[in-house]
């Protein structure tokens, strides 16, 4: 079911009174409630729009899922994985470093999810700013670790930590987003169809060893990537290969201050020797 029931800790879904003259029968719920401002992102998953509420003038991000109709015989434009993302959002309590979920609904054959609007991704911020300061890296580290500590306490593994999924707010804080491949380790019939982006994936995932520490590895890779200038990124052959082998490139070590460097090194260890998010905070 897609009724947007949420934990008490989460703000209740906003409801607006609509007058008859502003609700012609041919308008969808989306059209009645929101005005699309612009497309924030688009991919195989669907599209994410920035929208403005017609009544409160608040802005949100709305994700509209779509799938290949040839693969999805149900005739719907969403599948089990999309439903799982909504259920994961519903199960997570409100947290300052996790993107806020507000509601979800079916629009004809589509599934829509209303979320908090952030300014941009860490990846886009890095590309625009070119060089991130030590304070920038420290803020990303602290906020991401707080988010991962929350997920770990719920026995959830995000599985797709990368700069594109760490969002930056106007106030300069960072929030983890995109729970499309998140797994719940409490489930007895644990089934993992996707481990996210291979470049950032922890090596133990390829042998079906799942734990919250996999997200720490991905965060270490992500921080290494954005520690160097965006117009002189890590070399695909030498530096990325070294990083995936657990050897932090000299440019990354030189870019990070002592404690940050040691923390990143610890995140890239074998999973049994890798610290938890709580230990790094």
Automatic annotation (TrEMBL):
GO BP annotations, alphabetical order: meiotic cell cycle; negative regulation of G2/MI transition of meiotic cell cycle
Keyword list, A-Z: ATP-binding, Cell cycle, Kinase, Magnesium, Metal-binding, Nucleotide-binding, Serine/threonine-protein kinase, Transferase
Pfam families in UniProt: Pkinase
Binding residues for ATP: 63
GO molecular function, one term: protein serine/threonine kinase activity
InterPro entries named in the record: CC_SR_Kinase, Kinase-like_dom_sf, Prot_kinase_dom, Protein_kinase_ATP_BS
Top-level division of the source organism's lineage: Eukaryota
Protein name: non-specific serine/threonine protein kinase
Biological classification of the source: Eukaryota, Metazoa, Ecdysozoa, Nematoda, Chromadorea
């Amino acid at each position: 079911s897609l009724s947007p029931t949420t934990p008490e800790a989460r703000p209740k879904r906003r409801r607006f009174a609509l007058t008859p003259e502003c609700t012609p029968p041919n308008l969808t719920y989306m059209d009645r409630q929101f005005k699309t401002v612009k497309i924030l992102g688009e991919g195989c998953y669907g599209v994410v729009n920035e929208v403005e509420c017609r009544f409160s003038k608040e802005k949100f991000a709305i994700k509209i899922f779509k799938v290949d109709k040839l693969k999805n015989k149900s005739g719907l434009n969403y599948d089990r994985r999309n439903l799982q993302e909504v259920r994961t959002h519903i199960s997570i309590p409100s947290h300052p470093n996790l993107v806020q979920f507000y509601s979800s609904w079916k629009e004809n054959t589509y599934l829509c999810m209303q979320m908090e609007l952030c300014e941009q991704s860490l990846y886009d911020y890095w590309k625009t700013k070119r060089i991130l300061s030590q304070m920038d890296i420290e803020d990303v580290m602290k906020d991401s670790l707080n988010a991962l500590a929350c997920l770990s306490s719920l026995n959830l593994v995000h599985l797709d930590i990368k700069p594109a999924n760490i969002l930056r707010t106007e106030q300069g804080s960072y929030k983890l987003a995109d729970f499309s491949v998140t797994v719940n380790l409490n489930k007895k019939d644990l089934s993992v169809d996707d481990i996210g982006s291979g470049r950032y994936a922890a090596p133990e995932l390829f042998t079906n060893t799942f734990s919250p520490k996999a997200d720490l590895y991905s965060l270490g890779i992500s921080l290494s990537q954005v520690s160097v200038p965006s117009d002189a990124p890590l070399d695909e052959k030498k530096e990325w290969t070294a990083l995936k082998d657990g050897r932090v490139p000299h440019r990354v070590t030189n870019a990070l201050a002592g404690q940050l460097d040691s923390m990143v090194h610890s995140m890239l260890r074998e999973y049994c020797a890798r610290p938890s998010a709580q230990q790094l905070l």
